[in-house]
Amino acid sequence: MGDGPAFYYIFIIAMVVLSAFFSATETAFSSVSQIKLKNKIANGNKKAEKTLKIAQDYDRTLSAILIGNNIVNIAAASVGTLVFTLQFGESGAVISTVVITVLILIFGEVLPKSVAKENPEKVAIGVSGMLKALIVLFTPVIFLFVSLKKIVRKITGGSADNPVVTEQELKVLIEESENQGVLEQQESELVMSALDFDETTVREVLTPRVDVTAVDANSSAEQVKNLFIEQGYSRLPVYSGSIDTIVGVIHNKDFFRSYISDKNVELKSIMQHVIFVPATMKISQLLKEFQKQKTHMAIVSDQYGGTIGIVTLEDIIEELVGEIWDESDEVEYDIIKLSENKYKVSGDMNPLDFFEKINFDYKKSGYNYNVSSISGWVLEKFERIPQVNESFSFDSLDIKVTEIEKNRIISVEVTNNQPCDNPQ
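Below the sequence we write its predicted structure tokens.
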């Protein structure tokens, strides 16, 4: 072979190398985490800042990469055909197609993309300088492609604004971080609770009417004193006539301060205002209302103005950090594991929380009940108040009523006939 063919072979190798560059660059910028780049920027990495700007302008970046990649691949194929035709005659075109395709597929596509996929941030930062120069070089052609894309997007009704990470993707990322030991379990649970916080309604955290301790506005100071001492609550709702007519709330410190000086203190003189909220209200919104009103308790009302229950600031905080017990509280457990696949479950427990605890995939099982407690779910299934020891099956679960008090389901026993490998 003379200098001519040797030059052609060098040219083909150079085109394959450039093809590898563009393939690796495309994979790196399609996989790069903007969150990780921002973290590098915060640590003083100037190149990461340039890389982030390129990644955020992905339409122009991808156009430049595809233009460059197609140019080098076409150039490699054209020169390859010329070289092999000179070497092998008419059969050279077929040989060229096979050889160039294999070279570009292995060394220009598969290998560089695999390498870039393993460490996209490192590759993206490394090629950002050259890529920026190519974007400037190809600006006229890029402008044409970007304009065409905008026209197609308008015709198809597509959206240009896609979030870097969706909430569901973030949850998966947190779970993976916990599995890999990056986050502790309590850290993962706290972050998950914060993500679900905005979706939780008052109905899911309230204390139901039947469990509410309240006082009549005409109660004597002695009766109120005894109730505060017996129950240990810091606040008590005050009603007029019936609990459906809540007129205010009294604080124990206000009551006892007044009681010391006047044994016949009237509740109206120390009663504070109370706010009323619907059960559908988001607890994130209620938290802001508590802060604005400088209060810790709200009455949950139904559409007819009746009392459904109460919700406190503590109830909301517990959605983030879990149950909070003080010295006077009697610790109660929503779920007690009786055996490998059998559980005693409180009727007040949220069904979705229970399913999560035992790793039961309720979505695949067709669970679609709009209830906030196990007892509500059981009532929905029976469509009546069941008797003790009555049961029903749901997918792989057998649910048996074990305790009823005043027509209220206190607890059930749940047997999972297909227990998961790692119940929580």
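The CA atoms of residues 379 and 385 lie 6 Å apart.
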